[in-house]
């Protein structure tokens, strides 16, 4: 693990990027059936203390350890409902066309983000 992080840090340095030690996360992906999968305890690599997470966020997508994407779908619908509720609070001040446009802009942008990765998910997740 330490060698992997060191090579990644070197690659970032070569490309004039900096690894943010405070935000770096580690996600161990494993199949669903073995529920007794043992996650290693926190590991200190360089000056970072890495503890495996059950989920990690990358470019707006929330991945979990068994790649079911349940957490991402839940967050996506939570955000869409928040925008619908917020629009409902100011609805009386907007014309019908503007309200429709606002709902389309806010809700569809939540649903459309990274939706190609959701292709093939079971109906139970969605």
Could you outline the blueprint of secondary structure elements for this entry?
Layout: H1 2-14, E1 26-27, E2 43-45, E3 48-50, E4 52-53, E5 55-58, E6 61-64, H2 70-90, H3 96-112
Parallel strand pairs: 1-4
Antiparallel strand pairs: 2-3, 5-6
Structural class: alpha+beta
* Low-confidence segments: none
- Beta content: 5-15%
According to DSSP, the number of beta strands is: 6
Q: Radius of gyration in whole Å, from Cα? A: 20 Å
Mean pLDDT figure: 82
Q: How does the overall form come out from the CA principal axes?
A: elongated
Distance between the termini: 35 Å
Helix content: 40-55%
- Order of helices and strands, N to C? HEEEEEEHH
What number of structural domains do the residues give? 2
Helix count, DSSP H or I runs of 4 or more residues: 3
Largest sheet: 2 strands, parallel
Trace the largest sheet across and list its strands. Answer: 1-4
Describe what you observe in this structure.
- The chain is α+β, with helices and mostly antiparallel strands and 126 residues long.
- It has two domains: 2-53, no CATH class; 54-126, no CATH class.
- It is 40% helix and 14% strand.
- The chain is built from three helices and six strands.
- The chain has helices at 2-14, 70-90, 96-112; strands at residues 26-27, 43-45, 48-50, 52-53, 55-58, 61-64.
- A two-stranded parallel ribbon has the order 1-4.
- Strand 2 and strand 3 form a beta hairpin.
- Helix 2 (70-90) packs antiparallel against helix 3.
- The longest helix has 21 residues, at 70-90.
- It is elongated.
- It starts with a helix and ends in a 14-residue tail after the last helix.
- The model has no long low-confidence stretch (mean pLDDT 82).
